[in-house]
Amino acid sequence: MTSQSPVPSERTPLKRTATETSGSSDVLDSRSGTNMSAMTVHGHKEEHATGAQLIRDAIIGLSDGLTVPFALAAGLSSLNDTKLVIAAGLAELVAGAISMGLGGFLAGKSEIEHYDSERRREYQELVDVPEEEEQEIVDIFEPYGLTRSDIEPLLTRLRADPDKFVDFMMQFELQLDKPNEYQSFISGATVGLSYFIGGLVPLLPYFFLTSTQTALYASVPTTLLALFIFGVFKAKAVGETAVFKSAVQTIMIGAVAAAASFLLVRVFNN
């Protein structure tokens, strides 16, 4: 195994990486909540976004939900049959939400299984090659100018507690956080529900307007506005500074997908 930098903050800007700091407030687990936590270090207050996993799943679901049904509805609108657009749109929406939810569930389950597998391997390596495991810790701190003698007190403490030793290796060598035991269910529900909610936006005008073209004209600005808002939300959620750029890019992706679908159906229909 190769050593890696022990700086947790480099993994993702959304994860809280220090909960034991003096003055730190209690927060939800980083994979099951969406709070903003305040951490005070020597009078300096920092805001940290939590709920990285939940936000990521919601972004995945909303992104596909706003784009795929929008493109489908726009494409079918060229057939001038509102009922067909609604029926096909709802069918795709339900099937897509189930598929996306199942994908989120399997991804969350795989994440848990991967963590457990790596943890078992670390325990076994601690039994089989303890000297090499200690050297990996030395290698982690070496780029920061710390020698083995400097961190010997740390090694002594870790030798006395194999569980803490493995915890350290999981966190700083493999850079893996323990997933929430319900992560697979949370991810599946979040992705599926987000997809369904996002997909309803472009279909709503077709429920209230009898003319397919009129419904399309109403669906386009409604969905583009939703894509813009989603782009802003996504940029803020992941800590991007170019919020407007992110929103415009999101609109362009949705618009291109819808235009391609509309033109494709019209060509085949002709």
H/E series, N to C?
EEHHHHHHHH
> Which structural class fits the helix and strand makeup?
mainly alpha
Q: Helical residue percent?
A: 55-70%
Uncertain residue ranges: 1-41, 46-50
What is the end-to-end distance?
60 Å
Overall 3D form: elongated
Output mean pLDDT. Answer: 78
Return the domain count. Answer: 2
Strand content: under 5%
**Main sheet overview:** 2 strands, antiparallel
Query: Number of DSSP helices?
Result: 8
Strand line-up of the largest beta sheet: 1-2
Number of E strands: 2
Radius of gyration: 24 Å
Give a verbal description of the structure.
This protein has helices spanning 52-76, 82-128, 130-141, 152-159, 162-173, 183-208, 212-238, 243-269, and strands at 36-41, 44-49. The protein has 270 residues and is mainly alpha-helical. It folds into two domains: 52-112 and 184-269, no CATH class; 113-173, no CATH class. It has a two-stranded antiparallel sheet. Residues 19-33 have a biased composition (Polar residues). The chain crosses the membrane at residues 84-107, 185-209, 215-235, 247-268. It is a multi-pass membrane protein. GO terms for molecular function: manganese ion transmembrane transporter activity.
Summarize the structure.
Keywords: Membrane, Transmembrane, Transmembrane helix. Belongs to the CCC1 family. The chain is mainly alpha-helical and 270 residues long.
Detail the topology: elements first, then pairings.
Elements: E1 36-41, E2 44-49, H1 52-76, H2 82-128, H3 130-141, H4 152-159, H5 162-173, H6 183-208, H7 212-238, H8 243-269
Antiparallel strand pairs: 1-2
